[in-house]
């Protein structure tokens, strides 16, 4: 199996990032001088109460939103100040996404969904890597199915394959198990963990769920737009205790 190409020990990071939503009286400081590094080939969870800034952080990290101060990098590339066209290319070529709601195209087969991003980028899939990803996700028998013919767990596994097929610098997963039952959720989490440990990928996952966080190598807790705590080698209990310590 070929490991991912790693061109930096830090897959993504933010330095003293401030993000303010809205203006004037209704302005909300969603990120308040956040500094974090997400190491390559690690599975990191971002936790915290509702409104603590998790989604905002992910959007800023992925270049989907701009920051008001501070800097953001993906690998060795500084995002702040990049023109939109360069940001779009960076996302397309170096970032994978897994969303709570799967976001598959219903008229395409599972295989077409997996390969769409590469096709749009004019890149050819590496057949060996496609095989590795499809087999790791148990999707071999499902490639010709349309999303409507797949269970939620299978659809999310297709979304994971789509995220990994271009061997991105980092995969951002936003509550990837939020719409799944616990068994399907465990399968997806097990795969994300295996994609890091066995395939050398890097995954950053936003989650509310201490059990989901227990699959990761490191947990970061946000509260009120700030880094409130780190939970190394998280277990469901240690995450719960850290969240409780925040008064959540
Ligand atoms: N587009 C927006 N306009 C105004 N305020 C916003 C906007 N997006 C987020 N916020 C505010 O910024 C803060 C952080 O929101 P964010 O969605 O990042 O939190 P979160 O931790 O992801 O929450 P949840 O777990 O509920 O998804 C919240 O107070 C939220 O109300």
TrEMBL record:
Residue ranges of every copy of the ABC transporter domain listed in the record: 15-248
Annotated GO CC locations: membrane protein complex; plasma membrane
Molecular function (Gene Ontology), one example: ATP binding
Keywords: ATP-binding, Nucleotide-binding, Transport
Entry-linked InterPro entries: AAA+_ATPase (IPR003593), ABC_transporter-like_ATP-bd (IPR003439), ABC_transpr_LolD-like (IPR015854), MacB-like_ATP-bd (IPR017911), P-loop_NTPase (IPR027417)
Name under which the protein is recorded: ABC transporter ATP-binding protein
Organism of derivation: Amycolatopsis carbonis
């Amino acid at each position: 199996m070929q490991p991912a190409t790693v061109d930096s020990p830090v897959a993504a990071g933010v330095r003293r990032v401030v993000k303010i939503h809205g203006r004037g009286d209704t302005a909300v400081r969603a990120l308040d001088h956040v500094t974090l590094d997400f190491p390559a080939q690690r599975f990191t969870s971002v936790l915290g109460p509702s409104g603590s800034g998790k989604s905002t952080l992910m959007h800023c990290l992925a270049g989907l939103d701009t920051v008001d101060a501070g800097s953001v990098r993906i690998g060795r590339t500084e995002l702040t100040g990049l023109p939109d066209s360069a940001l779009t290319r960076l996302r397309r070529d170096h970032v994978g996404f897994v969303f709570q709601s799967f976001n598959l195209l219903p008229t395409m087969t599972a295989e077409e969904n997996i390969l769409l991003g590469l096709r749009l980028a004019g890149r050819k899939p590496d057949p060996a890597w496609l095989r590795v990803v499809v087999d790791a996700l148990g999707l071999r028998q499902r490639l010709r199915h349309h999303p409507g013919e797949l269970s939620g767990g299978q659809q999310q596994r297709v979304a994971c394959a789509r995220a990994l097929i271009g061997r991105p610098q980092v995969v951002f997963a936003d509550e990837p198990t939020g719409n799944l039952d616990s068994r399907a959720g465990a399968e997806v989490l097990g795969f994300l963990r295996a994609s890091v440990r066995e395939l050398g990928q890097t995954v950053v996952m936003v989650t509310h769920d201490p059990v989901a966080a227990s699959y990761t190598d490191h947990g970061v807790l946000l509260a009120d737009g700030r880094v409130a705590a780190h939970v190394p080698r998280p277990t469901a209990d240690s995450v719960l205790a850290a969240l409780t310590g925040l008064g959540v």
